[in-house]
Amino acid sequence: MKRIITAASLLLLSSMMYHCDDDTEVLETILPLSGSYNLTNLTISVEATTINDTTITLLEAVNGSTSYSLMGNTLLLTEYAEHSILDSVPISGLVVLENDGSATLSGMLPVNWGTGCAPFELISSLASDGTWSADTTTGTFSIDLVVDALDIEGNFSMVGDQLEIRYFTQTPADQRMINTLPINGSDVPVEQTCIAVSTITERVMLLDIEN
Q1: Is the pTM of this model over 0.70?
Q2: What does the pLDDT look like over 134-150, one tens digit per residue?
Q3: How many domains does the chain have?
Q4: Are residues 79 and 3 in the same domain?
Q5: 175-208 per-position pLDDT tens digit
Q6: Of 105, 98, 111, whose CA–CA distance to 39 is shortest?
Q7: Are residues 8 and 63 both part of a single domain?
Q8: Which of 71, 102, 175, 202 has the fewest CB atoms within 10 Å distance of its CB?
Q9: Which domain holds residue 26?
Q10: CA distance 42 to 76
Q11: Is residue 82 domain-shared with residue 1, that is, in the same domain?
């Protein structure tokens, strides 16, 4: 009888170790950040730098001259916009990061349907799917979607249940309309002009994990 109990005990112990190993494997395959997140806030910052040398007509003379030479590679302007779920025309968004590496992004997001010199921004319905990855060691994060304009390649940080994603995009051939220029520390009115620029856009997304 003692031998039977011992054999049964060994069988039970072996079974427990087997299931323990299985559980460890399952835990190790769970990707960091996998889950569903609701977008709450989106900030967009843009820096525009001139591409070419350009002569601008001033509406007020500066040092007796009504023209101004704007050199290439000059920081022309900066723009900043903040959007949230509390706006009168709110944004919304759902980011789903599946454990198999697939991802979906959908929601109502700001889109410029015009050009840099004739912007026409609307909060528009967008959706796409693709793949995602995250590295907790380097803090890097990416989503590669079918709609390339929605791709994300940047960094993340997690505080409590809130995920922050920060990423940059560059548009080397863009344009912006100007009607003033910062000259000698003052904004001088100029003839309205559409300027060829290179833009760097930083986007910061704040998302709350969906419970």
Answers
A1: yes
A2: 999 999 999 999 999 99
A3: 2
A4: no
A5: 999 999 988 888 999 999 999 999 999 999 999 9
A6: 105
A7: no
A8: 71
A9: 1-30
A10: 24
A11: no
**pLDDT tens digits for range 3-54:** 444 433 333 333 433 444 444 444 444 578 999 999 999 999 999 999 999 9
Comparing CA positions, the residue from 64, 81, 61 lying closest to residue 189 is 61
Look at residue 31 in the predicted model and tell me its pLDDT: 79
- The answer on 49 and 13 residing in a single domain is no
**106 in the same domain as 23:** no
Tell me the residue ranges of DSSP E strands in the chain: 35-50, 54-62, 65-70, 75-84, 92-97, 102-112, 121-135, 140-145, 152-159, 162-183, 186-209
Locus of tokens 């100029």:
190
C-alpha pair distances (Å), 186 with each of 88, 180, 189: 34, 9, 10
Q: Are residues 3 and 82 in the same domain?
A: no
Same domain membership, residue 40 and residue 25: no
**Residue 29 neighbours by CB distance under 10 Å:** 9
